[in-house]
Amino acid sequence: MPISKSAVYDDNAEQARAALALRLSGRANSTEISVVSPNLPADQHPAAVYLARLSSGSRRTMAGALDTVAGLITSYRCNAKTLDWSALRYQHTTAVRSLLADIYAPATANKILAALRGVLKEAWRLGQMDVEDYQRAADLGPIRGSQAERGRALAGDELQRLFVVCAKDVTPAGCRDAALIATLYGCGLRRSEVVALDIADYGLESGGITVRSGKGRKARLTYVPKGARPALAAWLSARGTAAGALFCPVNKGGKISYRRMTDQAIRKILKKRGAEAGLSPFTPHDLRRTMIGDLLDAGADISTVQRLAGHANVTTTARYDRRGESAKKRAASLIDVPYTPQDAEPEK
Questions:
Q1: Cys-Cys link to 78, which of 64, 82, 185, 291 (CB 3.0-4.6 A)?
Q2: Maximal C-alpha separation, the chain
Q3: Number of Cβ atoms within 10 Å of the Cβ of 256
Q4: pTM, full prediction
Q5: Quick check: is 27 catalytic?
Q6: Directed axis angle between helix 56-74 and helix 106-125, to 10°?
Q7: Are 195 and 245 within 8 A, CB to CB?
Q8: Is the pLDDT of residue 317 over 60?
Q9: CB burial class (10 A; 0-12, 13-18, 19+) of residue 31?
């Protein structure tokens, strides 16, 4: 599924797409972009090979990015599967970069460019592009700029209201959703990580959760806070101890299906519970942002928070900090400046 155009395109998106077509058509010796043969095997398809080496969560995101690039280049006649990626040249990719800079936020545009570079590299590795064409087409500098912070942090009373509405639901879905929210917030998990958890990944005695499907396929051990353990205990009492996914679907009749939930199901559950609690919209990732900010606000060392969150770099953890100016003021108050006014008598 392509990255949502409605969320990121500005009012001039149609003009921008027309401008790209004009740039491509006006280039001398422009290489015509064609559709890939449907008989091309998956192990010879640059996009398929590139996506196959990514984790499941990244695979979906980057597939959308490649669909976006293919659509922009061909006026949406092609997608990631049908575009002949080996036919892309510098005149195509530099025009795409220029257009992305016009209509996407820098972080989104650079993510799309990373996917483009990745599939070009696979086209070269597969012998479908020579090294000069590949290097020229992939020679795309990052798009600079800043943007407003994404997401929001939930206040303590908002979290409490979520648990209240879950408690009012006396079906197994109520205790499941309470445990789900407690785990997403208390452990700071991504939704792709929480749906991948098995019951065997949770240690009842230690409170530890082994995350085996972290970003970049990195496993880590995190811990369920004491306040969240009763919520998990209530869900496990309803679920039972049968092997399989820790969090399972519950139908309208309250019957539990012992299969894995999807990322989209997690978003729908939180949207439903947020609406019942009368909260402003929030995403599953906002619970992760809230956990990181709350830990930092409580004085936890940022490197420890980094490891709990599963970030590869501490600068990524710092970007999740939503504490605002009050935290900076408190930090500044810790500094003792030994200044004495000149007209004051020094102490004897």
A1: 82
A2: 92
A3: 18
A4: 0.62
A5: no
A6: 90
A7: yes
A8: yes
A9: middle
